[in-house]
Amino acid sequence: MLFRSNSKAQQRTEIDADNIPQHIAIIMDGNGRWAKKRALPRVAGHREGMKAIEKVVRRASDLGVKALTLYAFSTENWKRPKTEVEFIMKLPSQFLDTYLPGLIENNVTITTIGDFDSLPEFTKEAVIKAIDRTKDNDGLVLNLALNYGSRKEIIDAVKSISELVKDEKLDIHDINEELFDQHLYTHNLEDPDLLIRTSGEQRLSNYLLWQLAYAEFYFTDKYWPEFGEEALDEAIIEYQHRKRRFGGL
Ligand code: V0D
Questions:
Q1: Could you tell me which of 204, 226, 242, 243 has the C-alpha nearest to residue 26?
Q2: Which residue segments constitute the domains of the chain, with CATH numbers given?
Q3: What is the pLDDT of residues 79-130, one digit of tens each?
Q4: Ligand 1 center from residue 193 Cα (angstroms)
């Protein structure tokens, strides 16, 4: 057969509008490596990474994706050099100064998960403002994992369920997956259908361990600042080629 050897020609290159992943989770890795490759400081990579966020949010919104959860800062990221952490904490306000009007125009709602209280005051202020200004929108949910760690989230859920049991507001026999879900930071969101991680690493790094139980995983060698509309399309097309079974047959 003439075309069989050319797998590219055989591959579908269009997105099926009826099979869009409803919730996409992304680990935005490789800002530092992108910068290093260009002999730029790491912070220049973070700045460039902001542009990629805007592109991906706009494209996801246009495709009808319901929610995007972005891993912006893990509980482990505090171990980075102090000057880099200080710069990183300014990113939300920089991002929002530039892009909040456009997000509002696109009907995006901003939410966060993670240990928000431990962030610097000026970081919290910028994010709270964005949450407040977008709370009545009903388009794509841009959920930012800030100071997030999945094991801590699970422990927090165990603690709040234990309190209910201790206070005799809950019977142990009524603890099930659905109840557990309701005690996670993500209780308002469906589980992600697709996880994307950039920059070549193939691990979860304490991200949404419970919620990703049945997600499709997509890894790309592209650094986060190189990820854009077309890269998102490629990830979604790959997702649409997978046969999902949710543990069944
Ligand atoms: C740095 C890669 C966007 C990893 C992504 C507070 C680390 C870029 C935001 C952001 C960070 C947060 C809230 C918001 C809008 C944007 C962000 C942090 C770090 C840490 F409303 N990127 N980003 N926040 N990085």
A1: 204
A2: 18-151+193-239 (3.40.1180.10)
A3: 999 999 999 999 999 999 999 999 999 999 999 999 999 999 999 999 999 9
A4: 22
Handedness of CA 75, 81, 85, 88 (dihedral sign): negative
Closest residue by Cα to residue 84 from 123, 55, 42, 56: 42
Neighbouring-strand partners of residue 73: 146
**CA–CA separation, 188 and 129 (whole Å):** 20
Q: Which two tokens stand for residue 147?
A: 């100071």
3-state secondary structure of 248: coil
29 catalytically annotated? yes
The pLDDT of residue 2 = 35
> Biggest alpha carbon distance in the chain?
71
Q: How many CB atoms lie within 10 A of CB 9?
A: 10
Nearest CA to ligand 1 atom 16: 92
Up-side HSE of residue 58: CA atoms within 13 Å toward CB? 15
- Name every residue whose Cβ is closer than 8 Å to that of residue 64 and which is 6 or more positions away in sequence: 17, 20
Q: Which residues pair with 156 in a beta bridge?
A: none
Say if ligand 1 is within 6 A of residue 26 CB. no
Is any atom of ligand 1 closer than 6 Å to the C-beta of 144?
A: yes
225 CA → ligand 1 middle, Å:
13
Q: What one-letter code names the amino acid at 215?
A: A
The pTM for the full model equals 0.93
Per-residue tokens: 237: 């097309």
